[in-house]
Amino acid sequence: MTTAPPLLLASDHVTGCVHLLTLPDGTEAGRLTGRHLSEHAGFLALSGGRTACVDDRRGELLVLDPFGKELVETAIPVAVPAEHLACDPSGRWVAVTTGLGKNAEPWSDLLTVVDLTTGDAARVRTRVGEPGVTVLGDGDPLVVLRHREPGALAVHRFTDLLGAPPGCPAATAHAHLTLPDDGHGDAQVPDLGQVFAATGTGVHRARREGDALVAEPVIPWGSSARGWYLRLDPRRPALWSTLRGGPADPLRWPEWTNQAWCHDLDADRTTLTELGPGLVFRLALAKDHTAFTRVHPDGDELILLDSDGETAHRVALPAMDGAPRRGGTPWEGVQRRAVAASPGSDWVAVTRGGHGEVHVFDARTGSEAARWKLDTPLHHGGHTMLRTQTDGAEGDPLGR
């Protein structure tokens, strides 16, 4: 039996194009046009190498099957702009929250829930404020919304939401757990029914008990900095984040400090690794390495950590035209990078925003194996996902 090569989904969400490419040669295996995927909600890994994402312009939840005959397996209407996307551990029950989109302040309180098996969907009103979301399994699934200001984990029964009548009625949570007001970043451990939320005071965690949540001890950052991003490592029971410290003023972003944070849940042990100054955000998990990109006016780089959290390779990346500069913010009107990897592969892909380039590295050696030039610019770095058909990435049931 021939094993399918790893595939990269690369979305240029501004242009409205999704490229499907084989690794490491970059052969185009498929393409979607007229699809503007939500970069913030990201890609949600499903079984069999499939993925879910949201088209923010058409208002559709897409299930993509890169290894199948047709790339688009399912399209179901959902409320947009999509903020966060998650499913239960089985991959059947999906929830999509809404955020601010191109508006100055959050304005939408709509939540969409979907049964991917039947195609049934419903929309309800919850609370304005860009909520994070997890969907806990163990029998009847629960939708857990992470709210800010005031901070809380709000618990809803999935079946109640799915059975809501037309007209987007208000949905009242049947259980709450208090959080600090600055929550940003979510994860869950599917086998244990645990949910995690990143806050300034540490990672708050709770476990499912019936149709409610019970608080458990907070995991400290172990640093004066904090994480704004949180994800589960499906290769082992661990949580990852990037801790950002330094001045709060975004105009001084080149002075931001960055540490890779990894908490082994079995050993209850945290590892911190210095990454260097500048902008570091999302990370990617390869077979035996964890990948970060660092943007800085003095030079960008790819940083690869080994399974012990030690720095294995630091690789210089070519500068981007339109990159964040001193005296400006790293968010508005600038180019960035996306990084992608698969737990079933040693390949790591890094984009060069605005140039339409994808750099492919072998994580084992840190060497660049290929450099692709696409026919769209990959504005803002685009958004990417790297999959093999059996990599187990669906063990993390949140969009990334």
From TrEMBL:
This is PQQ-dependent catabolism-associated beta-propeller protein. InterPro entries: Haem_d1_sf. Residues 378-400 are annotated as: Disordered. It comes from the Bacteria.
